[in-house]
Write a structure and sequence with these properties.
Largest sheet: 3 strands, parallel
Shape: globular
CATH topology of the largest domain: Rossmann fold
CATH class of the largest domain: Alpha Beta
Strand content: 5-15%
Order of helices and strands: EHEHHEHHHHEHEHHHHH
Bound molecules: tryptophan
Helix content: 40-55%
CATH superfamily of the largest domain: HUPs
Distance between the termini: 33 Å
Oligomer: single chain
Number of strands: 5
Radius of gyration: 22 Å
Strand order of the largest sheet: 1-2-3
Number of helices: 13
Structural class: mainly alpha
């Protein structure tokens, strides 16, 4: 009997994801995250999308602009098609339970687990002693974001896989350390990352080995969601490629990361598979492909940018959506926190 594994988590399926409110959303955020958030609404009845402003404090942040940055990311969720009636959209700091559960998890997670996090090592470089404790602790807060809703599925980019593993380790250790009565289902689920689709990794237009990023010094390396048609056409025209024509099969993309990136962008923008794009374009040159790619991007991004501007022009309406979202989020998180307080033995809980 005693070597029976404890019963697994038995709660409902729920999606949670978040994006930092940093300046300058780009095509990588759109294809890599927003498009997926929208699509998941069809597969899961219960999706929660958060603007993680507590995480944004781990890097240099400006108190004067943080709230506006949060509104911009929330507006991007909406403009991309996240439906605030079906899904919850809110700002992390408005739901206090994230910070509270993060503290409890700080006492569950081990130093050694965090010391292995490659994102911290990359961000801190040689200067880890000068970084904020918050930057080191970032993935613990991320685990709290997910688990305070007992979320089971988390759409993220490839680079967040390790943080998701950490969230699972924390959930597992919490479940073990504060064991439910024998036979009861696990308290926290072990959340799964959802990393899918041709747009899973959108790379720099100048260097196919680097992610498209707002921190790249060259604006030519990325398509911003606010770029106009001329800027988009110019950036695609000047995107790095090689002299060969497009390959006819996926195998032909091997060793050609810049080409793979452009084909992937075309596929995700038009909703076609990589195979279908290569069947159409294989053997043709970039002189023909690039204008078609630019046109597809403009067709997708121009309405998105217009919708973003419309949403940001009515701050009161946007804030009302976020307020409503925070209330709905808190109504899920509070009962979980109430149980956690009891489980860990807080006075009065
Ligand atoms: N770290 C994530 C990123 O940079 C953002 C994030 C914070 C997140 N909390 C989260 C993503 C919870 C998914 C779930 O992309």
């Amino acid at each position: 009997m005693s070597d029976q594994p404890p019963p697994a988590y038995a709660g409902p399926q729920r999606v949670f994801s978040g994006m930092q409110p940093t300046n300058g959303l780009h095509l990588g955020n759109y294809l890599g995250a927003l498009v997926k958030f929208v699509a998941l609404q069809e597969r899961f009845a219960d999706c929660i999308y958060c603007v993680v402003d507590l995480h944004a404090m781990t890097a240099d942040h400006d108190p004067k602009t943080l709230a506006d940055r949060s509104r911009e990311v929330a507006a991007a969720y909406l403009a991309a098609g996240v439906d605030p009636k079906r899904s919850i959209i809110f700002v992390q700091s408005a739901v206090r339970a994230h910070a509270e559960l993060a503290w409890v998890f700080n006492c569950v997670a081990r130093m050694g687990w965090l010391e292995r996090m490659t994102q911290f090592k990359d961000k801190a470089g040689k200067h880890s002693e000068r970084m904020s404790v918050g930057l080191f602790d970032y993935p613990v807060l991320q685990a709290a974001d997910i688990l305070v809703y007992k979320a089971t599925h988390v759409p993220v980019g490839e680079d967040q896989k390790q943080h998701l593993e950490l969230a699972r380790d924390i959930a597992q250790k919490f479940n073990n350390d504060f064991g439910a009565p024998s036979g009861a289902p696990a308290f926290f689920p072990l959340p799964d990352s959802l990393i899918e689709g041709p747009g899973a990794r959108i790379m720099s237009l100048r260097d196919g080995s680097k992610k498209m990023s707002k921190s790249d010094p060259s604006d030519m390396s990325r398509i911003n969601l606010t770029d106009d048609a001329d800027a988009i056409a110019n950036k695609i025209k000047r995107a790095t490629t090689d002299p060969q024509p497009l390959p006819e099969t996926k195998e032909g993309l091997a060793g050609r990361p810049e080409v793979e990136n452009l084909v992937g962008i075309y596929a995700s923008t038009t909703g076609a598979s990589l195979e279908a794009v290569l069947a159409d374009w294989g053997g043709k040159g970039f002189g023909a492909f690039k204008p078609a790619l630019a046109e597809a991007l403009v067709a997708k991004l121009a309405p998105l940018a217009a919708e973003l501007r419309r949403l940001l022009a009515d701050e009161a309406a946007l804030d009302q959506i976020l307020k409503d979202g925070a209330e709905r989020a808190a109504s899920i998180a509070e009962p979980v926190m109430a149980d956690v307080r009891k489980i860990v033995g807080f006075w009065g809980a």
